[in-house]
Amino acid sequence: MVLETFGSIIKEEQLKTVERGILSNTFVLENLGLFPGYYGANLPTSKAPDSIFLIMNQKESTEKILRITHIIKKKLQYDFEGSPANLCVYNTDYNAIRLRHLKDFDHIAEIQEHYRDAGITFARTKKVEDSAVIQVKKIFQVKSISDKIFKDIEKDMYYLKIDEQLTWSHFKKVTIQVRNNVQISAFDAALAIIYGSNVLDLVRIYSTSLSIEELEKLHDKYEELIAKSLK
Fold this sequence. Notes:
This protein is of the alpha+beta class. It has two domains: 3-135, no CATH class; 145-229, GMP Synthetase, Chain A, domain 3. The chain has helices spanning 36-39, 62-75, 107-117, 168-179, 212-229, and strands at residues 3-17, 28-31, 51-55, 81-89, 92-100, 129-144, 149-152, 157-162, 188-195, 199-206. β4 and β5 form a beta hairpin. The protein is globular and about 50 Å long.
């Protein structure tokens, strides 16, 4: 059974300013590395954008962004995902709408127009090409495949249950230790939280090749090294 629930994901990605196919003098960023912990320098090439961030002038409520997105999606002839996001670049925070599943950069300006017509105001453009810590609030659709692991309906995406709430910096240090202590093929890791009758702290894993046994080994190693890091 698929569980649909709300939560958030925290990850680190390289971002760059988008300069074409957008409304004039608006601040839009795209990620340059799809799952950098998995692909490293061997990034897949694609003409379609992966994640696009529309930077807003001010923070808007999660409910407002989700409601506006729902209305826009009913008006358009193509699908996309629009989620509230916060980016930290150079110790500066930006409030944004994260767009995914776009087929073409040419759709960005049209989507911006719909958000603007609904009262969203966008920040003025600036040049950025740097790493950012990103938090995205989104709907998760997952199913349990063991008492330790969820699988996302999105291909090759998994979530490992952990017992502690971690900061991003703490998680990043533990992930480096995990990579150095397991004989497991490449994977990308991020922090996730989902809300239901209980709040679940998770490690999001992306990999095209891990077996359930390898995922369980990853889970156990994360739990072991998190516990050691807290002593």
